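QA checklist item 7 of 12: single-chain prediction sanity check.
[x] sequence parsed
[x] length recorded as 274
[x] structure emitted
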Amino acid sequence: MSPAPLVRVPLPVPRYPNASSPPELNEKEKSEYDAVLAHFADPGYVLPGVPPAEGSLLEEERMWLSYECLLRYIRATKHDVAASIKRLEDTLKWRREFGIYDTLTADLVEPEGLTGKEFLFGYDTLGRPGLYMCPSAALIAHLPWLLHTFYKLITPFIDPLTRSKMVFNPVRDDHGLWRSAEARDKREANKVGAPNAKVFELDQLVRDGWQGSQEFKYEHAIYWPAIVEMCKTRREAMTRVWKKMGGVVGIKEWDVKVGVQDEEADEKLADQGQ
């Protein structure tokens, strides 16, 4: 068998036809969500604690205040609507103060990526990017017994949704990387809102340390311009689709990403003359 080709750039975003849209909210959850949405979607809304002339939400802020974003804060505050609004507004102010929209550029953070101690590569089975931290890893493998015991002790105190996203010592076989041997053996169905039994396909994982099929080598001069351009292009595409959907607070990130995929599919067909 010939060796796998050497890869020096990030992988393109895959299309997962079996991925599920966000689950429907129950009556209580919808009531909480609607209350938070109404607060930020008010045409007269002004961000408190900033100069009046700067109180209106920026385009980037309206896009950030997505359906999923609002729900994350509601869950994080144990479904306290007032606390959710307060935390969201504190975060909006922090993002401005920290320079998310102007100061925090690719050039500014590039020194952190020179050695390849952290890099993005591949996507899990839900389409989320894989972040590798060397010598650690995004998923925690080969976890020492003591740390594993500590995690089991604190597990009951962790939010259930957060807990479902944490994977320790995943199991690899020739078909992928699994949450556990039990999940692999049962081939658990990917129910809406439930964690996938399979975490990564092997073609989305690096070979070194994770036994994936991608022979990836970090070379900054090649990788960095590629990831910067990829992020820029994708951000522009997502913003364009978000604007087509109305450019307002509360649009689903899921719908935006599906819209980008549809655009890409249409462009591919057009290039093929179909």
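[x] summary fact logged: The two ends are 37 Å apart (CA to CA).
[ ] second reviewer sign-off
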